[in-house]
Amino acid sequence: MITMKRYYVYILECSDKLLYTGITNDISRRLDEHNAGVDKNSFTFKRRPVEVIFHQEFNDANQAIWFEKKIKKWSAQKKRALANEDEMLLKLLAECRNESHYRNNTKKE
User: Fold this and answer.
1) Among candidates 39, 79, 77, 37, which has minimal Cα distance to 56?
2) Residue 84 lies in a domain
3) Is residue 9 a contact partner of residue 56, using CB atoms and an 8 Å limit?
4) Helix, strand or coil for residue 16?
5) Contact assessment for residue 84 and residue 31, using Cβ atoms and an 8 Å cutoff
6) Of 34, 57, 83, 107, whose CB count within 10 A is highest?
7) Which residues make Cβ contacts (< 8 Å) with residue 74, sequence separation at least 6?
8) For the chain, how many structural domains are there in total?
9) In angstroms, rounded to a whole number, what is the distance separating the alpha carbons of residues 61 and 19?
10) What contacts 67, CB < 8 A, 6 or more positions away?
């Protein structure tokens, strides 16, 4: 029997309400490590306790890595919308708001 390796992308909420995004192959162990303060140089060390507010499972490490990199760039508001499964807010926050975006271009040609 072949066992599929599983990978998890997760978002933690820290005690100071800041968010941390990570990837692991064992979410329970990783949460325990964050809360135990295994790495005193980590982002979460002085922000304990932490709790998982979102996680998504992947069977492919490359897909998990891609997703983690993607959401690490997101705002906290967008990450919270993902965690709360608020699809409408997530779509709104995903819209481009740059002045150069075609919707915001008011020049008449």
Assistant:
1) 79
2) no
3) yes
4) coil
5) no
6) 34
7) 82
8) 1
9) 22
10) 9, 56, 58
**Residue 34 identity:** H
Q: Cα–Cα distance between 18 and 76 in angstroms, integer?
A: 8
pTM metric for this prediction: 0.85
Pairing of strands 19-24, 7-13: antiparallel
Mind giving me the DSSP string for 20-87? EEEEES-HHHHHHHHHHTS-TTSTTGGG-S-EEEEEEEES-HHHHHHHHHHHHTS-HHHHHHHHTT-H
Residue listed under structure tokens 């709790």: 51
pLDDT tens digits, 55-98:
999 999 999 999 999 999 999 999 999 999 999 999 998 887 66
> What's 36's domain CATH number?
3.40.1440.10
